[in-house]
Amino acid sequence: MTQEPYVRTEMLSEQPAPSGQTGIVKWMRVNLFSSISNSIISLLTILVVIFALYEFLPWMLQPSWGAESLRECLNDPNITGACWGVINDRFNQLMFGFYPHESQWRPLLAFVLMLVAVAPVLFDKLPRKMVWFSALYPFLGVWLLWGGTIWGPLMVIAGFVIGVVVHKVLSNIVGSLAAIILSVLVTILWWLYGVGSIAGALSGIAPIGIAEVSSSDFGGLMLSITIGVSGIALSLPIGIVLALGRQSDMFVIKLLSVGFIEFIRGVPLITLLFTASVLLNFFLPPGTNFDLVLRVIIMVTIFASAYMAEVIRGGLAALPTGQYEAADALGLDYWQSMQLIIMPQALKISIPGIVGTFIGLFKDTTLVSIIGLLDPVGLIVSIQGTSDWNGIVWELYTFIALMFWVFTFSMSRYSMYLENKLKTSH
Amino acid sequence: MAMADQPAGKSFRLSMLLYDTRYRSMTIQFIMLALFVFGVFWLLNNMYTNLAAANKNPDFAFLSSTAGYDINQRLIEYTSQSTNARAWLVGLLNTLLVAFLGCILATVIGISVGVLRLSKNWIVARLMTVYIEIFRNVPVLLWIVFLNAILSETLPQPKDFKGVDAVASMSFWDTVIISNRGIFVPEPVFLSGSSIMLYVLLASIVGIFAFGRWARTDQETTGRILPTFWIKLAIFVVPTLIVYFMMGQPIDWKLPAFEGRGAIGPDGVAYTKGIFRIDADNGIHIRRSLIALCLALSLYTAAFIAEAVRAGIMAIDKGQSEAAGALGLRQNRVMSLVVLPQALRVIIPPLISQYLNLTKNSSLAIAVGYMDVAGTLGGITLNQTGRALECILLLMITYLTISLSISLVMNLYNNSVKLKER
């Protein structure tokens, strides 16, 4: 009798994978314990991490937020680690320095508006009309921070309007190039001689304004952001000009651009800050004297523009030659092709680099503490010098480091997101 | 208006300077040059007027006058009676020292972290990411003062070494003092006969290169692979050691020690006289400020180097490592023989700029009181003589020279490893 071979007639239901091949177990097998040496390394690393957390967390998690002096922390038996009261006590100072208390809404508002102003540049889904606000923001921001009459910034803006009007009127009469030169001249003359007297007269008639704040009261994180943001914003146009100059066929222009860029990139920022603090006034007409924060902003702008020029040069170099040739073939002249074809593309490619430059500059603003400005790092010493907080070390460093870290880390993440978005290859 | 040197029939008009492309660039360049010269003249004129008003015409004579201040960390002989120029040199050497040490340390840490960050081991890769993100996102100045504070607070104070039942003790079999003033290591004293050792050492270095060359040709002709690293190490160490003992140990070591009441003498008994302190005459003193600065700069820069290394390795096509694997190379050989040499070409340019950054950031030494060139020439000399213009000018020239030399040397190296294209 032949035995019927077994033939299955119905499908088996799916079985779950073996327990060692799924979920967390499989993940750990692949990623942590794939071989003996790997397992040892993993275990050692985990031990190190646990040890670090074990040492650090109890120090950090202390009920010391309300302490009003270091003595209070030391005398309290419940507090065996960090004395966070210093952050609570000096938070305002760490944020705003000695900025008048009743006016602190101004830097805050300026900061929020700054985010609004840069948003259309950073996220291209937003309506294009917002760029107008970005263009107005520098004047608004300066007015909010330094205060004073509103007529000053308004008159400076009026200078641009005057320039455009002069150009429109003259370009039909004397030709385009002469019109450009004349309108620039008129605008500069307006700024040099018109703004001060007219703004003064107008504020005499209609005194609209907010309390003036001297920049020697600036401090804390607000000072870092002010220097960093104005440095980057001002250095962007200079950087573009320098980058174009470096790519130029004209020998003199190329030489000047390369010389400037390489000189600035060859010296440390601290020497430029020394220049700002002791030397800059020597190079200005006798009697000129403006305050240290402004001088620092000037030198930081000069510093950043050299780095910015290199970033933008990278963007220019990344464009295929075909773009330049196509612009020429369309019959556009140099400035037209730059403005309409080259720069929009090159700047778009350079945004991650610009963000990177900004991160670097923002971190470098801590250097102003060396020439005596009270940025967060500069405030450490002055807080340690008070009788309440004499001897405090780690809490301030940790907090300030964390503060910078949050800012720069989020910016670097944004820059990575951009790089991924701009990446055209697979 | 016809010009004599123009070809006949063509006339030169002034407007051609602007509208004719043959002349326009000349016009623009001329205008720019004129503006530049005018600007420089304006600045210099202001400067001379201001300096004359302050009665301080530019003058470099202060360089040869007595400095009058002490520099605690120095590589060459210097006293407070030395000149300002000497102080400048001491500062310059200190800058170069910290830059040199920092670059080496940063490269070692950076390459290890960059490679480990691509490790298949999840937790190691994550830990390296955490390291990179923590270090590169916090200002380097903060790291410098932070590490200085850590060293100063956690390392034992000199008084902890006092007495027979001291809290702290010397490390490495009583040859090194690690305290919060810095690290004291044995100081070699070269006796007669040590020069022969130096010659032997130089000869063995030449020998190493000769052997390396021979081993390479040997491998190319016979296919034999020698353990070159160990042989080279032996050539480096053994002859010098033999000579050292043959000459009767011509190098004497001055061990760091304590002096004063409470210090333990060679006979194990504590001294009873004098103030307790670390003996300044024995041992080499590596100051805390130097250690903190060096560590902070290299840890910070290493985070950037690690990112460059990672980018370089990831830029190498996956097919390269797969092909190497198919040839039967082991994982670490794939990395060291195939991937890293190719990645090096991508890594070197960012590496150069990181070295430059580290060197420039070393000017933050001033924050922890390490006397680098910005601390001597741009710090105390400037404040004491009041010669701000001259000092900052010299300081900038110094840094510019260092930066340009580093980028020159590294670019030469870069050109030597670059792919040779048509």
Distance between the termini of chain A: 65 Å
> What's the β-strand tally of chain A?
2
The appropriate CATH architecture of the largest domain in chain B is Orthogonal Bundle
Main CATH class of one domain in chain A: Mainly Alpha
Biggest sheet strand line-up of chain B: 1-2-7
Oligomer: heterodimer
Number of helices of chain B: 12
Cα(first) to Cα(last) distance of chain B is 52 Å
CATH homologous superfamily annotation of one domain in chain A: MetI-like
Largest interface, counted by CB within 8 Å of the partner chain's CB: A-B, 54 and 52 residues
Shape of chain B, please?
Answer: globular
What would you note in describing this structure?
The complex is a heterodimer of chains A (426) and B (422). Chain A is mostly helical and 426 residues long. Among the domains of chain A are: 45 residues, no CATH class; 211 residues, MetI-like (MetI-like fold, Orthogonal Bundle), CATH 1.10.3720.10. Helices cover 71% and strands 1% of the residues of chain A. Chain A contains 16 helices and two strands. Chain A has a two-stranded antiparallel sheet. Chain B has 422 residues and is mainly alpha-helical. Chain B has two domains: 50 residues; 266 residues, MetI-like (MetI-like fold, Orthogonal Bundle), CATH 1.10.3720.10. Chain B is 62% helix and 5% strand. Chain B is built from twelve helices and seven strands. In chain B, strands 1-2-7 form a three-stranded antiparallel beta sheet. In chain B, helix 6 runs antiparallel to helix 7 and helix 10 runs antiparallel to helix 12. Chain B is globular and about 100 Å long. In chain B, 30% of the residues are buried. The mean pLDDT of chain B is 84.
